[in-house]
Amino acid sequence: MFDVDEDYSDGLLKYPEIEKAFIGPVERHGRAPVACYSKRDTLDIIQKNFRQTAVQAMETYEFSVLQLDHGEATPVFLDDI
């Protein structure tokens, strides 16, 4: 569903489609930082861009976004709802 920005200058793997939901990097001891996105803003973007209801957007988020796996660089989502 989301493309990956592989040409990232800040060392973070990012999803360009939800750039406006980007909060910032999350630091972890002994590991590289990862990108952190707002769950609320991500759901809003999915609803708007894919013309989905709130329920459909949540399903898309749970089954298509959260299941993306890019190993240690996989972005995280802050549950800010």
Q: What keywords describe this structure?
A:
2 helices; 81 residues; alpha+beta; 22% strand
Can you give a write-up of this model?
With 81 residues, the protein is an alpha+beta fold. The chain has one domain. 30% of the residues lie in helices and 22% in strands. The chain is built from 2 helices and 3 strands. Strands 1-2-3 form a 3-stranded mixed β-sheet. Strand 1 and strand 2 form a beta hairpin. Helix 1 crosses helix 2. The longest helix has 12 residues. The protein is elongated and about 40 Å long. The two termini are 22 Å apart.
Brief overview, please?
The protein has one domain (16-78). It contains 2 helices and 3 strands.
Q: Please count the helical segments.
A: 2
**Rounded Rg:** 13 Å
Strand order in space, largest sheet? 1-2-3
- Please give the alpha-carbon distance between the first and last residues: 22 Å
> What proportion of the residues is helical, as a percent range?
25-40%
Category from helices, strands and their pairing: alpha+beta
**Total beta-strand segments:** 3
Point out poorly predicted stretches: none
Number of separate structural domains: 1
Proportion of beta-strand residues = 15-25%
Largest sheet: 3 strands, mixed
Q: Kindly report the average pLDDT value.
A: 91
Secondary structure layout:
Blueprint: E1 22-28, E2 31-38, H1 39-50, H2 54-65, E3 76-78
Helix pairs in contact: 1-2
